[in-house]
């Protein structure tokens, strides 16, 4: 029974994290849309985003 409770707690935590991630994505989408509607240079702001997934290596000779 204890293992089942741990499973339920972990499952609830994953659901909360997914909901938070969806909320963040929605906020980013709406901010980008507002920037496009206002005619501001949204591309310039997006160029400075954090790219954790892409690690650039130096060019080899």
Structure characterization notes:
The longest helix is centred in the N-terminal third of the chain and has 37 residues, at 2-38. The protein is flat. The protein has two helices and no strands. It has a domain at 2-37. The protein has helices at 2-38, 42-46. Helices cover 69% and strands 0% of the residues. The chain is mostly helical.
Give the rounded overall mean pLDDT. 84
- The helix/strand series, from N terminus to C terminus, equals HH
Distance between the termini: 60 Å
Low-pLDDT stretches are none
**C-alpha geometry:** flat
Strand proportion = under 5%
* Portion of residues within helices: 55-70%
Q: How many whole angstroms does the radius of gyration measure? A: 19 Å
Number of strands: 0
Tell me the structural class. mainly alpha
Summed up, the helix count is 2
Largest sheet: none
Biased composition (Basic residues): 51-61
Region (Disordered): 31-61
Biased composition (Basic and acidic residues): 31-50
């Amino acid at each position: 029974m204890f293992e089942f409770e741990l499973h339920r707690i972990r499952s609830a935590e994953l659901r909360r994290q997914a909901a938070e991630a969806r909320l963040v994505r929605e906020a980013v989408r709406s901010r980008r849309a507002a920037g496009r509607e206002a005619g501001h240079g949204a591309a310039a702001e997006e160029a400075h985003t954090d790219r954790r997934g892409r690690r650039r290596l130096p060019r080899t000779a």
